[in-house]
């Protein structure tokens, strides 16, 4: 007898994070990635996206703790450090990170720093001179001034694409298995363990939404620190993230080897129980992260939580969110009360009525500047990274996120999301409708420029 046809698969097959769901998601994402490669004349693709088992990781709520883990990771590295960031400020935190990188280069570590030309404009070559003099390598991604494009004997290596920015935030370095296991015994609020001089090789990665600046990593919570996200990962997923950095390094600098010879390779055995899917995205008409977020949203069965600083979803993604509300599932979205880019806040506000009418909960974070990009599906699948829900992230920027399976990883993220809700103001449909005619006009006006925001 044939199985009765239903609108949805059996719970076991459809449940987020289950083996059947994971296999289906990977298969569909790989097909999507193949199509995306066909639309790019020069792709940074490093192979089909896949979940990688055997990792340990934790979410970092406080930027100062992320700085502590960043400096500890740099100090314990013995072979390779790859650092990629959008905004790099020459302030106290920026100077401290630079000096630690320089010390690593002096002890023989291969240090590569990739900084976006727009985000790192305040920290020029002069600021990075101590790192360069120590033997480190610093590359500016996509110079705004066309005469700063790198040259070869055959002319320009790259096209001039000033509107396409590297918005990714990533640190990858070698570590030891012993150091990783000591880290697994500690929490994100604890100090990093002491470095091991020798031991079986492993790898570490730190990613998320935080840049290198005082207001991301140096100021105390509640005293000027921007509310953002970070994740520390140990294991094979960090090796994969290292491959993604290498692809971006080649995209920015060309494939000519440096004078120091080939960069040491990374490797890692399993050091934990987490399954992680690293997902990079690049400018173009087919964005893998946007597809993944939409797919995950459609599969929600219990609840959806979103914290996003720049929230201008496409019409299709808005319809997907509305479908969650129509199934009477809790959907709690945290956005800034006062956006650090006011015109983005205006464009976002223009369409919130559609979501509020459907029953989605919109909360506006009031404690600090919100810059987070975190998504939690059914308390079991967490997406953390650099990408906002807007067309700049999905069409113009290079972005990087990780999809982490596991309720143990998601639990503290949910707790901090609840804390953010307590520090937020509920935005109602009545408030949205009560906007002045001038407010409605300016919201609509800036919404017209949503493709560039």
Molecular shape: globular
Give the terminus-to-terminus CA distance. Answer: 54 Å
CATH architecture of the largest domain: 2-Layer Sandwich
Give the beta-strand count: 17
CATH topology (level 3) name of the largest domain? Endonuclease, Chain A
Binned, the helix content reads 25-40%
Number of domains: 2
Class computed from helices, strands and strand pairing: alpha+beta
**What is the name of the CATH class of the largest domain?**
Alpha Beta
Number of helices: 16
Please give the largest β-sheet.
Answer: 15 strands, mixed
Name given to the CATH homologous superfamily of the largest domain: Endonuclease Chain A
- Sequence stretches where pLDDT stays below 50 over 5 or more residues: 1-10
* Rg over CA atoms: 22 Å
Protein described:
This protein has 453 residues and is of the alpha+beta class. The protein folds into two domains: 53-276, Endonuclease, Chain A; 288-452, Endonuclease Chain A (Endonuclease, Chain A, 2-Layer Sandwich). The protein is 37% helix and 21% strand. It is built from 16 helices and 17 strands. It has helices spanning 11-14, 19-38, 63-76, 92-106, 129-133, 177-184, 214-217, 236-253, 288-299, 315-326, 342-350, 352-358, 391-396, 407-422, 429-433, 437-447, and strands at 52-60, 80-85, 110-116, 137-141, 151-152, 155-156, 170-176, 201-208, 230-234, 274-281, 304-308, 331-336, 361-365, 373-377, 381-385, 399-405, 424-427. The strands form two sheets. It has a 15-stranded mixed sheet with strand order 4-3-2-7-8-9-1-10-16-15-14-11-12-13-17, sandwiched between helices. A hairpin with a 3-residue loop joins β14 and β15 (381-385). α3 runs parallel beside α4 (92-106), α9 (288-299) runs parallel beside α10 (315-326) and α11 packs across α16. The radius of gyration is 22 Å and the shape is globular. The termini are far apart. Mean pLDDT is 89; it is low at 1-10.
